[in-house]
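User: Please predict the structure of the protein below. I'd like the answer in structure-token form so I can feed it into my own downstream comparison script.

Assistant: Understood. Taking the following sequence of 241 residues as input:
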Amino acid sequence: MQAVSLSFFRFRTPLARLWALGMMGAARFALPKVDGIGFWKLCGSGTGEGFTPVPNTAVYAILSTWRDEATARRQVAHSRIWTRYRSRASEDWTVFLTPTSARGHWAGEAPFEVSQGAEPGPLAALTRATVKPAVAAKFWKQVPDISSVIGADANVIFKIGIGEVPLLHQVTFSIWPDADAMAHFARAPGGPHQRAIAAVREGGWFREELYARFAVTGDMGSWGGVSPLAKLPPLDLEATT
């Protein structure tokens, strides 16, 4: 069963941030050599809550698919490239996921293999889009409204905006306690999310789109001094530190 890891790293000092920026190029040579890895992407992040076009030079991410969760956990914990990132970072957190639905493509690939349907419990949502340059300004006018509503939603467990290319390649990632909580936000009639979706469809803003949901299976490390999954009710999650 395919597993997905999404690792976040926070870099405090200017020198560490410069190193992380350089690794956006250098790590491309190391990641394909990691045993068991499939699809992978290196991402930067946005400022504030992450849903902005202004880069946050302190936070970077690695998304990877693996042949199974045991391999994902082992390589995130012990492979040389992840160890190098942790040695420079002031903090890091990895969440482990299992795809439950996916449609669309990322850089021409369909990276997530769905092997089980949605189940009760916490879930994560990921949206990735390539924004057409001619409509990027219109797209980013919609994002602050969505961000403020997500930030005010007491149900959201974790949220961040990441991407490969500022302004044009955008990924939104969020974790919710259950499907009902996420659906309440996404489908609120007349809300900013619904308005943005309508504008995307009417204007054809995206050159490529991918939408995926995942079961949250565990985590490793901390973010802001704690595991974001600690906000969830007690569940059978295999968390490691």
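That's the full token string. The chain has one domain: 3-220.
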